[in-house]
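Quick illustration, no need to memorize.
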Amino acid sequence: MSLSSLLGDLFSDAESGTDTPETATENGEDGSVTVLHECRNCGTNVSAETSRCPACESDEIVTYSIE
């Protein structure tokens, strides 16, 4: 097995729980606000419903609103 295949298999599960930031129109707010949910420990972007980081297993998920 090649190194790239091994690393791809290793990290494929960690990436499955990541999300892109939501825009204000997607989350029901008006204006041009971007809402970002990320792990405070490793910086992985996660969905709003996530309570534990899929990459590092930390439960420190923070929400940032960027105007």
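The helical segments are 3-15.
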